[in-house]
């Protein structure tokens, strides 16, 4: 192993590994140090996203949505399948296979970009040195021209309900359960709580979700959030808002969660608890003495818009810096930094980072919510098109939800797009592209959309913003 590199990336998740690959593509000599540890002690690149986040959760969401549809919808299509049974071991095996293929794929990508993979722990030292502790415990000090910190994040613990790995689980534990709990408690009605709550509910668990805030999904356009709550409750998620959990006690009957809400003190007794109240940056063991890199009061590495820390040659990207904790946001930051380091152009447009909640119905959005636009004081217009009026959605037996477009009155600029409905996460790509290229609502109106497709919903929402929708009465 050489001790000197052009670029060392610390962290091999979706922010770090793309940074390393792009730096390699740019002709630089690169190493990527990653210390992920699986439950069996083995190492794999890919970070939270590939090992314990995006990929395994989407694998289980897909499988369990099929179970749900087989049970609830096949008969409507005229398909008789008899009793639908779940083989959880096979479902988990399929998920593990997808994770393995994804994480091993990174090693192949590293090889083609000539990136040196280093399994173990990295710690930044002053003067762009990095202390590398390999999995066998051996320590080497490496030198680099530039260092990219991409150490990611970990589940936020709840002091009153500590993780025990048995009954009180974090999101990773919730993905790995080998039996379907009869009663599942979820603390936090955020993205993880709703996605993983949906997984286990569809498999038959009674799921109670305790959310401290009175407002449901405050970061989501509230017209969408209201629609979503209706569907989640129909699925059977028992979502209790304004529920402040004060403690947990384990007994023969399970775990009793004590909480208070506006109506007083309550207890929810469950077999397993998933605590999903947010994530915090992994920066505790990242920096040696005297590096000059600043960490803010919440533990994030302080960076500017270009992800530069203010210390020569030191950048930071992904979940360990400000902004949404999303894999694609980290990826774009990693690629931007690798291009900037090579003297190329690099930029992340933070105004067009899409978000997706992979429940059924799916939720996706980009730009500002109606509440944010209203608060900004800018005059706006709104177009809404329900999937009920979409021929393709009806044919799919997926006509719940709508597409909503918000545009400025003065210059027709698209300010936000919010979709709740089938394939929302795929449909939002068109809105991201439109906003990236500063398209107006009229530009979308004049763009031909194939019929019958779900994407027509966005077309019609753009038309509806000017009361010119064709397939739905304008209001
Ligand atoms: P991470 O993925 O956390 O990777 C950081 C890596 O660095 C890890 O391997 C870690 O072990 C390693 N590391 C840390 N410190 C050191 C060190 N000092 N030395 C060496 N290695 C170190 N986002 C989406 O966009 N879409 C989704 O669908 C989605 N689903 C999710 C589902 C779940 C259940 C969870 C938990 C998260 C999900 N996320 C999703 C969020 C997404 O996983 C994160 O935003 C993303 O993984 C952040 O990427 P990162 O590279 O910054 O950090
Ligand atoms: P989150 O911030 O989405 O939601 C946490 C929820 O817990 C919030 O609603 C919050 O009000 C609530 N909460 C906080 N403290 C509480 C308490 N003491 N009692 C009850 N409720 C409490 O966080 P998350 O769901 O843990 O997800 C973490 C991150 O991972 C998010 O930033 C998210 O962007 C990312 N993620 C993304 C996806 C996706 O893109 N589909 C999926 C999963 C996770």
Overall geometry comes to globular
- Relative strand content: 25-35%
- The rounded distance between the terminal residues' Cα atoms is 68 Å
User: In total, how many domains does the architecture comprise?
Assistant: 3
The CATH level-2 architecture of the largest domain is identified as: 3-Layer(bba) Sandwich
Ligand set:
flavin-adenine dinucleotide, nicotinamide-adenine-dinucleotide
Number of strands: 21
Q: What integer is the average pLDDT?
A: 97
CATH superfamily of the largest domain: FAD/NAD(P)-binding domain
Q: Can you tell me the CATH topology of the largest domain?
A: FAD/NAD(P)-binding domain
Low-pLDDT residue intervals, each spanning 5 or more residues = none
CATH class of the largest domain: Alpha Beta
Helix content: 25-40%
Kindly provide the radius of gyration, computed on alpha-carbon positions and rounded to a whole number of angstroms. Answer: 24 Å
Structural class: alpha/beta
* Helical stretch tally: 14
Sheet with the most strands: spatial strand order: 1-2-3-4-5
Largest sheet, in brief, is: 5 strands, mixed, barrel
